[in-house]
Amino acid sequence: MFSELKPLPTDPILGLMAAYKQDTNPNKIDLGVGVYKDEHGDTPVLKAVKQAEAFRLENEKTKSYIGLAGNLEFCHKMEQLLLGEHRTLLANRVRTAQTPGGTGALRVAAEFIKRCNSNATVWVTTPTWANHISLFEAAGLTVKEYPYYDYENKGLLFDEMINTLKQVPKGDIVLLHACCHNPSGMDLNEEQWKTVAELAKEVGFTPLIDIAYQGFGSSLDDDAKGLRLIADTVEELIVCSSCSKNFGLYRERIGACTLIAKDAATADISNSVLLSVVRSIYSMPPAHGADIVNTILSSEELTKMWHEELDEMRTRINGLRTLIKNSLAAKGVDQDFSFIDRQNGMFSFLGINKEQIERLQKEYAIYIVGSSRVNVAGVSHTNIDYFANAVADVLN
Ligand code: PMP
What we know:
- The protein is built from 15 helices and 13 strands.
- By secondary structure, the protein is of the alpha/beta class.
- The strands form 4 sheets. Strands 2-10-9-8-7-3-4 form a 7-stranded mixed sheet, with helices on both faces. A two-stranded parallel sheet has the order 1-12. It has a two-stranded antiparallel ribbon with strand order 5-6.
- α6 links the parallel β3 and β4.
- About 45% of the residues are buried.
- 4'-deoxy-4'-aminopyridoxal-5'-phosphate binds near residues 182, 242 and 244.
- 4'-deoxy-4'-aminopyridoxal-5'-phosphate binds near residues 102, 177 and 242.
- It is an enzyme of class 2 (transferase).
- InterPro entries: Aminotransferase_I/II_large (IPR004839), Asp_trans (IPR000796), NHTrfase_class1_PyrdxlP-BS (IPR004838), PyrdxlP-dep_Trfase (IPR015424), PyrdxlP-dep_Trfase_major (IPR015421), PyrdxlP-dep_Trfase_small (IPR015422).
């Protein structure tokens, strides 16, 4: 059976990671992988996480199964983080299952959608995180794209987006990035979120909000404002969240799939289907990550520590955006890179061509994915000069 298989290409980002690791150039810079990095290029464990882990080691009483929905206290804390004060109003309509990462949440959501309507199409932004397309297709759903990023003007194709979403058939799903759009860094503003929320109600599509970077854009609350607006407007909504970035828990695989239904009875029925989906994929989620997040969010002291660490990550990213813009301008680069400073989160497209990306890798050991998406957090105050010189060289 296995001999019938044809080899598949490796994920371009994973290939890039491997090439970077092997590169012996002491000046090498990795702008490919989507993880936060500090000034030293490290992705350290947060102090709040370390303390919560010490507490857990001391206090964990059993390794028995935690149940299909995972840690229920964690689930409620996630609802609070996502919905803020809106949760009180929505509470009897909200159900959450803890999942293995944001990817697990999306895969569970995909199977849930399949059970609701096997003919549903999932509409995603052009471009989107590549895994969105594979994981919805893997669940047997059709994926279509709607215009989003304006490559030419480094902004949004908002009118085109709305015109396409107006045509979406009732019962389809529209995936929206809550904040820090991956890969473009371009987010909707409040007015635009209002328009999309009203459109969802009018047209009858179900929004699916992917929130993988809450706290990396403006603030925990601000980054959820679009999601909260939609939750206040529509009857049904799916939210897939991740604690990989904002808690730095990448390899612990912790996220959540939240459903908001039109009333409590529908929420209970939907939840039973969601849990049956979970049962048939991985039965029950792992405990560690949820326990860490719950411990942090249950303690005033650890929450404060986490907020400070999250603020530090966000401030660093935003500072680097300004630094990149200014450094490229200072090197006399003709192209306008001011858009980098207007975008959010870790990613932006540099907007340079394949040949220039290849030269950056070959001549300067600067690793960027083929789309020209860069992880801003890979730049530091130490390597910025080297980076800006290299970009100026390949562009001029
Ligand atoms: N959604 C988006 C847009 C992402 O960028 C990511 C991570 N790269 C995820 C979801 C999933 O994150 P994870 O599974 O690592 O929690």
